Amino acid sequence: MLRPTFPIETERLALRPFREDDLDSLYAYQSLPEVARFLYWEPRDREESRSFLREKMAASSLEKEGDWLVLAVEWRETGDLVGEVNLQWRSREHQQGEIGYILNPSFHGKGFATEAAGVVLRLGFEGLGLHRIVGRLDGRNTASARVLERLGMRREAHLVQNEIVKGEWTDEVVYAMLREEWEARAADSDGPGGEPAQD
């Protein structure tokens, strides 16, 4: 079980549960074709974003296997909602988790995805006691792959045309990190995600 204390602050960001007043900012990026391009869903209209916001607001802790922790990523300097990061508790028995993130393209190139994803890795390994965390992405999503690589995750698999997404065969790439790798990286002076870089 994991019930973080919020907000969780980094050098530039505050991670917190979603709120009702996040709707405009959430819709601003969920409605963009370039955001939905490598995801399972199509660009959303305002009512779809409102429905998903209600789900996100309820996902502020990990109570049981299968739950998702979904956090709004806020730029502390401006108060802008720049996107979201999430952590799924995939298996209690095997101590497995999965991370993900979506950022508004207006805030790409500032290292925010790396900074925020580093927090959910820490929550998974140190808060939930996971043994292994993965990140899965569309094989064409090279920007997302760079984020996982900057976090120190290993590219473990490239599954060729293993899914039909939006009517076309797509590749899936899997990255992973073990707790011992996290601990070794965290011992470095920069720590995971310590270097701001392009998203």
TrEMBL record:
Pfam families linked to this entry: Acetyltransf_3 (PF13302)
Stated name of the protein: GNAT family N-acetyltransferase
Residues of the N-acetyltransferase domain: 13-180
Organism: Actinomadura violacea
